[in-house]
Specification:
The chain is mainly β. The protein has helices at residues 2-7, 29-32, and strands spanning 13-14, 37-47, 50-62, 65-78, 81-95, 98-108, 111-119, 128-132, 138-142, 148-149, 163-164, 173-184, 187-196, 200-207, 213-220, 223-229. The chain has a 14-stranded mixed beta sheet. A two-stranded parallel sheet has the order 10-11. The chain is globular and about 50 Å long.
């Protein structure tokens, strides 16, 4: 379970293939950043048929900037006794489709993480400095001139070459595969599979008409962990 929850803040190298490369969502960050807009995504999170928490995303677009806040809060109980707790909070700032800054904190059942992405303080460098404080303090400079996180809320961004895990700062290869359209709770949806190395597959659903994010599911520890959009 712990490994999965870190994956929900996934970062990886995403190589979009086939029809996925032709995705042009009407709600894409790049297409709407010039206007003021606000989106809120709230998902109830289930492990098999048992609700274990929720994950909320707030996306604010104004004057060329996009600010994203996310909060995940899960509790797994066994015979009504909490056996696992997870809380993850992140703030992101984007401009022209590129991540400009990131701050996150995570409590993974007692294991604490903190992450920050900021411009390099040196005027001689144009990169971004990624600082991590767990499991031990480390700092690296990203070479990608236009980095991105695993922005499930914007399908177009999932085709980017390099993505950052907002919990750990790790980077790993993955592949986004278009699985076509299918009904989802009375709505025609387009399903994609994100094949992540060393983690497994994550299915993502988006409304076929405008590619609004509707759900997520993956197999973990012998069960299914699922995001269901709250209506």
């Amino acid at each position: 379970m712990r490994r999965y929850f870190a994956t929900l803040a996934l970062a990886g190298l995403v190589a979009a293939t086939g029809s996925a490369a032709a995705i042009k969502p009407t709600t894409s960050l790049a297409a709407t950043e010039r206007s003021s807009a606000s989106e809120r995504f709230v998902f109830d999170v289930y492990y098999n048929d048992r609700r274990i928490g929720e994950h909320e995303f707030q996306v604010q677009r104004q004057d060329g900037e996009v600010r994203v806040q996310s909060l995940a809060n899960f509790v797994v109980r066994l015979l009504f006794v909490p056996v696992y707790r997870y809380r993850h909070e992140a703030q992101e700032l984007w401009q022209s489709g590129c991540l400009q800054s990131l701050e996150s904190t995570t409590n993974d059942n007692g294991d604490r993480f903190a992450l920050a992405l900021q411009p390099e303080p040196s005027t001689a460098s144009t990169g971004l400095r990624l600082s991590k404080w767990a499991p031990e303090p480390t700092t690296v400079t990203l070479t990608d001139p236009c980095p991105a996180t695993f922005a499930y809320w914007d399908l177009e961004l999932l085709q980017r070459g390099q993505l950052i895990n907002t919990q750990t700062g790790d980077v790993g290869p993955a592949q986004l595969i278009d699985q076509g359209t299918e009904p989802l709770g009375g709505t025609m949806a387009r399903r994609f599979t994100l094949d992540v190395e060393d983690t497994g597959q994550i299915d993502l659903w988006y409304r076929a008409s405008d590619h609004q994010w509707l759900g997520l599911a993956t197999q973990r520890d012998g069960g299914t962990l699922r995001y269901r959009a709250r209506t």
